[in-house]
Write a structure and sequence with these properties.
The structure holds 3 protein chains of 3 kinds. By secondary structure, chain A is mainly α. In chain A, about 80% of the residues lie in helices and about 0% in strands. Chain A has one domain: Helix Hairpins, CATH 1.10.287. The relative contact order of chain A is 0.14. The chains are: A mainly alpha, B mainly alpha, C mainly alpha.
Amino acid sequence: MKLNLFLTLSAFLFCLGVYGMLARRNAVMILMSIELMLNAININLVAFGALHGNLTGQIFAFFVIAVAAAEVGIGLAIVLLIYRNRASVNVDDVDLMKG
Amino acid sequence: MLIADAIAAPPSDWWAIAPQLVLGGTAVVIILMICVKRVDPGWNALVAAVGTVASGVFAWEQWRQVTTDANPRLAYSGMIAVDGFSAFLVLVVCVAAFLGVLLADQYFKREGIDRGEYYALLLFSACGMQFMAAANNLVMVFVALELLSICLYVLSAWNRDDSRSQEAGAKYLLLGAYSSAILLFGIALLYGGTGTTNLARMAEIFSENVTREPGLVLLGMVFVIVGLGFKIAAVPFHMWTPDVYQGAPTPVVGFMASGAKIAGFAGLFRVLETGLAAFEFDWQPLLVGLAIVTMLGGSILAIAQRDVKRMLAYSSIAHAGFILTGLASGTAAGVRGALFYLVAYVFMIAGAFGVVALLARRGERYTSLDDYRDMFRREPVLATVLAFFLFAMAGIPGTSGFVAKFAVFTGVADAHQWVLLTVGTVASVISAYFYLRLVVYMYMRPEVDEGEAQPAALPRVRWAPATVVALVLTVFFTIQLGILPQGLLDMAGKATLLF
Amino acid sequence: MDWFDSWALSLAVFIPVVGALVILAIPKAREYQIKVVGLVASIAALIVGIGILSRWNWDDGGYQFEVNKGWLSAIRSNYHIALDGISLPLFILTLVIVVLCIIYSWNHWPEPRSPKMLLFLILLLETGMLGTFVSLDLILFFVFFEVTLLPMYFIIGIWGGEQRIYASIKFFLFTLFGSAFMLVGFLALFFLSEPHTFDIVELSANGGAAAAVISSTAGLWIFAGLFLGFAIKVPMFPLHTWLPDAHTQAPTVGSVILAAILLKLGTYGFVRIALPILPQAAHSWAPWIGLLAVIGIIYGSLCCLAQTDLKRLIAFSSVGHMGFVMLGIATLTPVGINAAIFGMIAHGVVTGMLFFVAGSIHERYHTRDMSRLGGMLSSIPRMGGVFVLVAFASLGLPALAGFPGEFTSMLASFEPAGGLSQSLFRGFMIAAAVGTVLTAGYMLYMLQRVAQGEVPGEYAGHHLHDIEAPEYVSWTPLIVLTVALGIFPSLVFNVTNSSVVPMFEQIFHHAIGG
């Protein structure tokens, strides 16, 4: 069945995103991983929309795209802030607080 | 099929989203004020405070209508629910936002980072929280959550020259976005399993045929619980909380700790109690486990902390566990207790962080336990107020904290969940230990050990009127809800009944 | 005087807290006004108490001055307060002791000196204690029970000795831990009983009929929860370890209030709540309670023999004396309960007095180490005399307050309630008798070291003050009571018996059945 192909692709991309999120130490790469996760979900949403024959999934995907853009915008701004301060975007260096 | 037929514009029901509109509108007004002419940000704060009060008035009117005429309804094609639950939590968000505005002004002036945009972002975030409380559709849940979260990311990093604040913002953003993605994945699966994102419709589908794609739905449910678990800072999804609470500017933490938690719980309650009510036997054990590890984890980890803000962060985690307990009990009394707890918690946490913000002085330098030594001698009033909030959070009778815990535990006992009840009470005793330790530092330890040099005396803390108002309000309601909680308990009871 | 009947209890309970709030409003510098307000508030409460005594119906064993108003209707908890023969003596004792403590403190305040805060806390504490004794609703009881915790915690933690922080936290956490389980027990009682209620009177009516629907296993668990809460407060062996620390570290008035009244909250809880509501569970637990009580008696006495610190010795003697009280309760007979209540009052008066004197001794000698004390009878004869008298009362000399309670308690364990093993309880009786001998031993040993002999050389040049005016005023009532209760034990027995007998008739006829 075709749906399963989409779901498998989406699950694969999502896992890739989760892996990147956990394994990458570069803040920009982590943001990209999150993007990957969100887009995997978009595939899911559109596929399910087609399955159920309604528009909710596609419309939802638009919302997700818009929100993801906002999130990355803010994310890059904060990362830039950190870069200006420490000349590094490695999240391992961002460890002032522990406990 | 013409697109125009398929997408008919829903009828406008301004009244249903009046509180949200007022908050969002006020935020826009503040931005316009800034665009026209930069004035003292105190004026922006004043506008923001008025806006939250106005929003609260609308929310109260909604509450009054919904409860007296008993006509909960859906608006905007089922996107928005107007019922006791939503009106109650919208009102609580107004309170949290109001306190957040009041506590901010003095702090940001002291830190030299007072900019009017802060209030606009705070209001947008509160607006998102209110939408979350009223959301009846998973799309709405997601969008509202992102609205409130994105504003909070920025607010966390508000002190942009302070590296702790930057770090807090970055960590909150990365983990927040991650948790949003997980939540969204869960939402997508729920949609895949049911073909709808409307929670009321979802419940109907389940009542007709429970077995339809249970695998997808159960998986989606778990993802949704995990995703919202991040937002309410439940163990084991709490790791961002201590760092963010420690690093972010203290008034932001006060607002974030109360508001974001309200919103997270609102989403969790709504999704589980409305949309997935048919799966109660599946999510209840999950929540029981989550509640147990959250209560114990928060209480035990807090003992190891030497930083007061960090300790309060773990305390807020433990509180999340107690609130979860109410939902996990699966009884009306438990949910009522949880709603009462949220209100009591808003006052306690806002008050406690308000005092901590004052005592931290410029640059937030004094937040470690040792800085609180002998605080009673140096700042008797503030020390007493803080001790009062600590005892309230520990659940000492005569304060709202006790009634809140008691109300939650009543629900648990009602469900005859004796293990959960016993763990809960033991966790509350464990948590009393670290609250007590801070009191010990403030009241019983001399400022320096014998033989050490006396540190230079800090100037006395100055009080701005707004701060005084906020602290008086929080203290008053913490006592009032502790001695005569009947009114709010009744309200919370009505808020659960109208599901 | 109708208004008095309905308002008297509330007045007595809340006058102290109003006084405390007034004190809070007075600037710290106006010390004299603060002291006067504190004294006036406590005396006003005492006057209300005397009014209650004057209008008391001595023949009626039921609840008097009863008030039952709605409070938290959402959780069906009411503001239900009243007194009966069991709580009246404790209620009056509380009122008296607090007044005496404030008088005693009049001229010597513990360091760091802050009469404002200390009086505030004492008055708050008084409200908590009085409230606990009058509450007839489980939640109300719990609230007042917990309210006593905070002031005592601060009193120990701020004005205590070297180890005060450790002692205060230990005190707080032990009690809180116990009350957590107590709360679980209360909630379980509410939801398992039929009809659901927190009302102590309803729950205990007809031998705990409302709670009789609870399965016996659940009943045993609930009793265990209540037991933890109350036994930690008493304190019973092996949950007593907070007590010596708290007593040793606390300032004098703190020790006095702790010994005289706070410990009674635990035993009172057994008599008022645990026994009448869950008689069957109590019946099953009684042998264990008796055993722990007897161990407490022997263990407390042995520990006393090993102490060098005067206050620590008195603290351990409390463990022994409260053991007698618990033994009386464990017999589950009217005689035993009467003995227990008498024992509570007697212990309150005598041990309270002992701590007063110990505090004054500490003030004179600047040490509580008994090896460095001595010669009180020759250097400060009046205080020495008082000390000897009270110590004799504490060791249970007939014709003094300590004797009737302990003797009756042993008498009761000769003939425990039906169904309890007679031989076991007679064994307890013999062990308790050994305990009295040990008590006599350590008390005399203590007197020998502290009161007799020569004043140690290090005090040779010092002039030691004998009893001063505030001490006279605050001690006289307690000394009079010590003698009066010893000679006329019926003063208390008559009051308590009128309520204990009906309570037991209910338990026996309905629950245990003979």
